[in-house]
Design goal:
By secondary structure, this protein is mostly helical. It has eleven helices and no strands. Helix 4 crosses helix 7 and helix 7 packs across helix 9. The two termini are about 45 Å apart. Keywords: Amino-acid transport, Cell membrane, Membrane, Transmembrane, Transmembrane helix, Transport.
């Protein structure tokens, strides 16, 4: 009987089964879940209203500042590591390769612990500029740079070699041709993955709580956890999560549009 069905019919039956399973799962969840208890624990409107405006003017603002500072530091360091990775000098390539393997292999949490504990021990009396903000920028940047370096390297290698040859034929030095011609084109290529890295950094900024921050330096996760502990209710955590989505969802949409535009251009 099944063998007599056409391919289109079999595909429709398969899709129908998948839709049925999806609806069945939703129905089971809707029937089994204790919605009153969930609302009690996660959706207390009076408690949620008490979080404003501090959750925006302080927690979200700090999260954005931590993310942007870490992204900028990681981008600069990542560019340097990428150029070292492509260098004709072997020691530069070795250092860049070791850096990338180490910082891509270690959890971000360990990097933050290293920045908060190991750096002051290794360099007594030395303060990281910017205090907590500087430590967060360093921690996030060290992690991000390892990934950005590989992204930028791939972007540079994706630029046609003829671009470099044309610049050299016009009298440009290798360094000037790289800075003026190759790197700008490479960044146009890697904008989508770099934007995606920004989204990941925004979420990783929650690790700042392991550095020990003051009340005014708290980011969204720390702010939500503290208020949840004080009120014995999880509504602050839910509101903090919604604030993360307020930023990450638009950024994700931007990433998809940039990727679609890049695919169309190719």
């Amino acid at each position: 009987m099944t063998s007599r069905l056409t391919r289109r019919q079999r595909r429709r039956i398969s899709q129908g089964v998948q839709y049925a399973v999806f609806v069945a799962v939703l129905v089971v969840i809707g029937v089994r879940a204790d919605w009153d208890r969930l609302q009690n624990q996660f959706a207390q409107q009076d408690l949620a209203s008490q979080l404003f405006p501090d959750i925006i003017t302080m927690a979200l603002r700090n999260t954005v500042v931590y993310t942007v500072s870490g992204f900028v530091f990681g981008l600069v360091l990542g560019l340097v590591i990428a150029l070292m990775r492509l260098s004709s000098v072997a020691p530069y390539r070795w250092v860049a390769s070791v850096y990338i393997e180490i910082f891509r292999g270690l959890p971000a949490l360990l990097i933050f612990i290293f920045v908060g504990v190991a750096v002051p021990l290794a360099f007594p009396g030395t303060e990281i500029p910017g205090g907590t903000y500087g430590k967060v920028a360093l921690g996030l940047g060290l992690v991000a740079a390892a990934y950005m370096a590989e992204t930028i390297r791939a972007g540079i290698q994706a630029v046609p070699k003829g671009q470099m040859e044309a610049a050299r034929s016009l009298g440009f030095s290798h360094a000037r041709a790289m800075v003026s011609v190759v790197i700008p084109q490479a960044f146009r290529i890697v904008i989508p993955p770099l934007t995606n890295e920004l989204v990941l950094l925004f979420k990783d900024s929650s690790l700042v709580l392991f550095l020990g921050v003051t009340l005014q330096e708290r980011e969204l996760t720390k702010f939500g956890r503290d208020l949840a502990s004080q009120t014995a209710n999880s509504t602050p955590i839910l509101v903090a999560g919604l604030c993360y989505l307020l930023v990450t969802v638009p950024l994700s949409i931007v990433v998809r549009r940039l990727e679609a535009r890049a695919d169309k251009a190719r």
